[in-house]
Amino acid sequence: MDTQKAPIIDENLLLQFGARLKSYPKGTIIFNEGDTAKYYFQLQSGEVKMNNYNQDGKEFIQGIFSKGESFGEPPLLIAKNYPANAVALTDVVLLQLSQTVFLELLHEHPETAIAISTRLANRLYYKSVMASEISSQDPEHRLLKLIDYLKLHVEELPEEEQYCVTLTRQQLADLTGLRVETVIRSIKALEQKGALIIKDRKIFR
Questions:
Q1: SS3 of residue 22 by DSSP
Q2: Cα–Cα distance between 72 and 95 in angstroms, integer?
Q3: For the whole model, what pTM was predicted?
Q4: Both 51 and 86 in a single domain?
Q5: pLDDT tens readout for residues 111-126
Q6: What is the Cα–Cα distance from 3 to 182, expressed in whole angstroms?
Q7: 15 and 70 fall within a common domain
Q8: Domain assignment present for 44
Q9: Residue 98: inside a domain, yes or no?
Q10: CA angle centred on 45, ends 202 and 60, rounded to 5°
């Protein structure tokens, strides 16, 4: 989900407030579910996923974050523990700013506070939409709803512009609560119905 959108907070501003650059190799756990939220994290490069596991060990991905995006802010703002793990999907470089200084930055730059609030509102909207859709028994409907959300609200593309899904089949499964075999079968069915286009194993809508 690599996007070209501007970072949620200008990197120079973060560095001005003392943010540190941190590098994590692929597979590194940046924080665990239940850890105390101490830092603001913003990706300079790479991808991070936030996930949980149910009692049967099945993974559920809460979100995938890429260059310019931040993650883990809600517990940081309300002094709660993290409700999910954060794991590096690739080698990542991120900017890390302590909670105290992050809050000072928001107070001194209200336009940044508004930008953060808008981003969090978009995430809540996504969770509300997907919570309703995941209750649907139709896997094709779930997948189309997720892809349309990614196109319009994450990539912010016009409806008429073709969108390339950069998530793997496994990630689509984890985001929709489906089995990967069901995702593969549903994608083929959607292609046959003309709802999706498959080129070189990539999904377009």
A1: strand
A2: 13
A3: 0.74
A4: yes
A5: 999 999 988 888 888 7
A6: 28
A7: yes
A8: yes
A9: yes
A10: 60
**Domain that residue 92 falls in:** 11-120
Q: Which amino acid, one-letter code, is at 71?
A: F
* DSSP 3-state percent helix, strand, coil across the chain (nearest 5): 40, 25, 35
Q: What is the pLDDT of residues 59-71, one digit of tens each?
A: 888 888 989 999 9
| CATH code, 109 | 2.60.120.10
Average pLDDT of the chain to the nearest whole number: 88
CA distances from 18 to 57, 74, 113, 129, 148 (A): 39, 21, 18, 37, 38
Phi, psi angles (nearest 5°) of residue 90: -135, 180
State the residue for tokens 């496994």. Answer: 170
Report whether 46 contacts 90 (CB < 8 A): yes
The encoded tokens of residue 29 equal: 């756990």
pLDDT digits (tens, 9 = 90+) for 121-173: 888 887 777 777 666 678 998 899 888 888 876 667 777 788 899 888 988 88
Please answer whether residues 186 and 148 qualify as being in contact, where contact means their C-beta atoms are separated by less than 8 angstroms: no
Query: Do residues 39 and 103 share a domain?
Result: yes
Residue holding tokens 């559920």?
A: 60
Q: Read off the amino acid at residue 58.
A: K
> What pairing do the DSSP bridges indicate for beta strands 164-165 and 202-204?
antiparallel
Gyration radius of the chain's alpha carbons: 18
Cβ atoms of 82 and 31 closer than 8 Å:
yes
